[in-house]
Amino acid sequence: MPYTETFIRDQIRAIPDWEIVKVGFSNVEGGIDHADFAPYSTRVTDLVVRSVLGVHPYLNAYKKVLQDAGAMLLHAHFGPGGIEALPLSRAAGLPLLTTFHGADAALSRSRSPWARSRYPRNLSELFRHSAKLIAVSSHIADALLKNGAPAKKIEVLHTGTKIIPLRDSDDRQGIVFVGRLIDIKGPMELLRAMSLTDKEIRHSTPITIVGDGPLRGALETFARDRHLTVKFTGKVDSGLIPALLRSHSVFCGPSLPAKDGTREGFGMVFIEAALQELACVGYASGGVMEAVEHGTTGLLAPEGDIQTLSEYLVRLTRDEEFSANLGRNGRVRAKAMFNLDVQAENLAAIYQEVAN
């Protein structure tokens, strides 16, 4: 799995009472977890065959791995993954669960020809065949319903995150963003919002941008031209993120809708920030409204309202008592609602229900 999918790896490790066998297409260099069986290589020829034929060339081999392990069900992540697992589910005679994490629940609205035709048809077949459709937020559950998923099959189950101790920091200040540097994650919205503040605030408020992506060059140029105090870290190991968050006082993740209209599915990074008692700022968009409770754990501006976003950032960086109170509330809420161990137990209960 890519480094951005630590939430899946952590869920796999937390599920109690079940032995998990990981099957996939290929193991890639730099992945965060390796499959027990992944027959394709990463050569271009294999990638082409894989994109056309999927599991079919190795169907018997996949079946044998599952049979030898005594598998009782298949659990796929993301809509495309569920579609790829359909032939294997049928061939092995195993019930299929599919977890939807975001845009995969609503790609029928995409402008791409493939998504307008093939994906919706395959998604409908996945809805019919899956024993359960797991949505990581109510926002995603609503998208599944709008796309024709049977309500009785949908379960809302937050992925959850590890409840870790607070990391002490003697110097908490500034704003931090963590995520891929792409338009829908909103890093440019953060810089634009800060550029609207007065000169003193721009110069005295450090901003840390954690992550990498195609927008990095544009972000660096914008920060330099607007005289913002910004540090770009590039990719950071997930184990170092809590301490990095704790050294700041505000987390900002102003996610925007994608071109096809899909929105952030949930926003686990807001929960990770709340666990380190950071006040959170963003837009009232998609699943972010479930990750952040406006006025209690953070502040959410109307979607795309850059002026209000700017005002919220100024307030939280200047009103330390208010910001700290939101942060404390955020940790209490995260522990109560998004504990990885509790959510993994709930998933194990779904497994048991489906297997029986």
Keywords:
356 residues, alpha/beta, Rossmann fold, 6-stranded parallel sheet, 4-stranded parallel sheet
Please give a quick description of this structure.
The protein is of the alpha/beta class and 356 residues long. It has 15 helices and ten strands.
Based on DSSP secondary structure assignment, what is the total number of beta strands?
10
Can you tell me the CATH architecture of the largest domain?
Answer: 3-Layer(aba) Sandwich
- What's the helical proportion of residues? 40-55%
First-residue to last-residue Cα separation: 29 Å
The side-by-side strand order for the widest beta sheet comes to: 7-6-5-8-9-10
Name the CATH homologous superfamily of the largest domain.
Glycogen Phosphorylase B
- Average per-residue pLDDT, rounded, comes to 92
Report on the architecture of this protein.
The longest helix is centred in the last third of the chain and has 18 residues, at 320-337. Helix 3 packs across helix 4, helix 7 (187-195) crosses helix 13 (306-318) and helix 11 crosses helix 14 (320-337). The protein has two domains: 3-160 and 339-355, Glycogen Phosphorylase B (Rossmann fold, 3-Layer(aba) Sandwich), CATH 3.40.50.2000; 175-337, Glycogen Phosphorylase B (Rossmann fold). The strands form two sheets. Strands 7-6-5-8-9-10 form a six-stranded parallel sheet, with helices on both faces. The protein has a four-stranded parallel sheet with strand order 1-2-3-4, with helices on one face. It has 356 residues and is α/β, with parallel strands linked by helices. The protein has helices at residues 6-14, 44-53, 59-69, 79-92, 113-129, 138-146, 187-195, 199-204, 216-225, 241-246, 268-275, 288-291, 306-318, 320-337, 340-355, and strands at 74-77, 96-100, 132-135, 154-156, 175-178, 207-210, 230-234, 250-252, 279-283, 298-301. It has 15 helices and ten strands. The two termini are 29 Å apart.
